[in-house]
Write a structure and sequence with these properties.
By secondary structure, this protein is an all-alpha fold. It is built from 21 helices and five strands. The mean pLDDT is 92.
Length: 402
C-alpha cells in the first residue's frame, strides 16, 4: 500500500488526475500477510495461500520501463515501444488479481493493529532530518584518514586494505599462521591473542579501522536523503516474525555505540576538517572510531523541535522473568520502578559474583548486562561469548571478576 500511495500521490498519479489518498483510507495486503506469519512478497504469499498467482512474465518489462537508459532512447515509452507497455499492463492486471486473492483470504488487521500500521506510514512519510554539513565534514576526514591507513598497510604488506585475500595470506606467512580469515570476529580475537605478534596486531588494527562498516552509514544517508534534507522510508512494519519493525536503507535500528562522551563536541571539531586536530583531541583513539561515534549526532530535529530518545527499561529481562516465573526478579523490578531498588543489571552482577550491590561499578554493571541478555531466552555459553564481544567485555576480565 505504501508504494501505491506514494506513486499515486506523486508525479505518476497526478499526471492522470488521480485523487490524493491517505494511509487511513488503505488496507495493506503485505501488512496483513506479515501479521499472519506469511511471506511479505506478493508472489510468495500467493503461493503459500494457493490463491491467484503472481506471474513472472512481465517483470523484465517492468524493470526496463522503470529505469533510464543509456541507449538511443533515454526511456521506453508507450510511443516508442507500445508492445512492451502492453505486456506491462497485463503484468499489472495479474498483480491486482494476486493482491485481491490474498486480500479475500486473509483476515483484516485488528483495529488497534491497523492504527499501528497507519502510524508506521506517518513515521516513514515524515522521516528524520540529517545534518548534511556535518556529514560532509566527517566524510572529508574519513577519506583523509583512510588514505593514511591504506598507505600504512601498503608500506607493511605491499597490498591495499581492500586486497583481503592477499593481506590474510601475508599475515599467515609473517608470524600468525592460525589466522583463518579477516572477518570482524576473527580479527578481534587475533588482536587479543597473546600469541599474535605485536606487528601483526598493529596491522590488524589498521585493517579493522579501514574496513569499519559504521562510517558507511554516512554514504547510505547521502544516497537516501531527500531534497529537503530528510531521510524517509527507513522502517518496515512487522519486519520480524515477532511483530517488531525492521530497518531499511540506513539501518537506524543498528547505530554504532559511541566511544566518546560528547558527540556534539566531536561534530563541531570535525567542522575544521583538520585530522591532526582530531588526533590531538582524542589521543590513543583511532580517528575512524571518533567519526563512527558521531553517527547519532547527525540525526537532528527540525528547527523549533526536539528529538526525544526513550526506551523500555530492561524489557528483555522483564519478559524472561515473567515467562520463567522468576518471582524474586519481578519483585525487584517493582521496587526499581518505585525508585526503591537497583536495576536488574546491577542485581545480576551482585548475585553472580556474590558481592554487595553497593560495590557494583559501571564495569561490573556492564558484565551484569551481558549476563542478563545472554542467558535470557535460554541462551548459553555461545550467547554469552557473542554478547561479551558485542558489548566490549573481555572474557578474561570477566573470569577475573568472578
Amino acid at each position: 500500500a505504501q508504494f501505491e500511495r506514494v506513486i499515486l500521490n506523486g508525479v505518476a498519479g497526478q499526471k492522470v488526475g488521480f485523487p490524493r489518498i491517505k494511509s487511513g483510507q488503505m488496507v495493506c495486503t503485505a501488512a496483513k500477510a506479515a501479521n499472519a506469519g506469511l511471506p511479505r512478497a506478493l508472489g510468495d504469499a500467493a503461493a503459500a495461500l494457493g490463491t491467484a498467482p503472481k506471474k513472472a512474465i512481465g517483470r523484465q518489462d517492468m524493470l526496463a520501463c522503470s529505469k533510464p537508459r543509456t541507449g538511443k532512447e533515454s526511456r521506453w515509452t508507450p510511443e516508442n515501444d507500445p508492445e512492451r507497455f502492453i505486456r506491462l499492463y497485463a503484468y499489472c492486471i495479474d498483480d491486482v488479481k494476486a493482491e485481491r486473492g490474498i486480500d479475500h483470504v486473509l483476515p483484516e488487521l485488528s483495529p488497534d493493529e491497523q492504527k499501528v500500521w497507519e502510524l508506521d506510514q506517518r513515521i516513514n512519510d515524515v522521516g528524520v532530518a540529517v545534518d548534511l554539513e556535518a556529514i560532509a565534514n566527517i566524510q572529508a576526514l574519513v577519506v583523509e584518514r583512510k588514505a593514511e591507513l591504506a598507505a600504512i598497510c601498503i608500506k607493511q604488506t605491499g597490498f591495499k586494505p581492500t586486497q583481503t585475500a592477499q593481506i590474510a595470506a601475508w599475515i599467515r606467512a609473517n608470524g600468525y599462521a592460525k589466522l583463518a580469515n579477516l572477518q570482524a570476529d576473527t580479527v578481534n580475537r587475533a588482536q587479543t591473542d597473546p600469541n599474535c605478534p605485536k606487528s601483526i596486531r598493529e596491522l590488524l588494527a589498521v585493517y579493522s579501522a579501514y574496513a569499519m562498516k559504521a562510517v558507511s552509514k554516512y554514504d547510505a544517508i547521502l544516497r537516501a536523503v531527500c531534497a529537503d534534507g530528510r531521510i524517509r522510508g527507513m522502517f518496515l512494519y512487522y519486519g520480524a516474525k515477532t511483530g517488531r519493525w525492521a530497518s531499511l536503507i540506513v539501518q537506524l535500528q543498528n547505530l554504532f555505540r559511541p566511544k566518546i562522551k560528547d558527540c556534539d563536541a566531536a561534530i563541531e571539531a570535525c567542522a575544521l576538517r583538520d585530522l591532526d586536530w582530531i588526533k590531538f583531541l582524542y589521543p590513543g583513539m583511532e580517528p575512524i572510531v571518533v567519526f563512527a561515534s558521531c553517527i547519532r549526532g547527525v540525526l537532528v530535529s527540525a528547527p523549533g523541535h526536539d528529538l526525544i530518545s526513550l526506551d523500555y527499561a530492561g524489557i528483555e529481562s522483564r519478559f524472561t522473568a515473567w515467562l520463567f516465573n522468576e518471582g524474586w526478579k519481578l519483585l525487584a523490578f517493582e521496587k526499581f520502578d518505585r525508585g526503591e531498588g537497583p536495576d536488574s543489571y546491577k542485581l545480576a552482577a551482585a548475585r553472580s559474583f556474590q558481592i554487595h550491590i553497593d560495590d557494583i561499578d559501571e564495569f561490573l554493571r556492564q558484565i551484569g548486562k551481558v549476563l542478563e541478555l545472554a542467558f535470557g531466552f535460554e541462551g548459553g555459553v555461545g550467547a554469552c561469548v557473542t554478547a561479551a564481544a558485542a558489548y566490549g567485555i573481555d572474557l578474561k576480565a570477566l573470569a577475573d571478576a568472578v
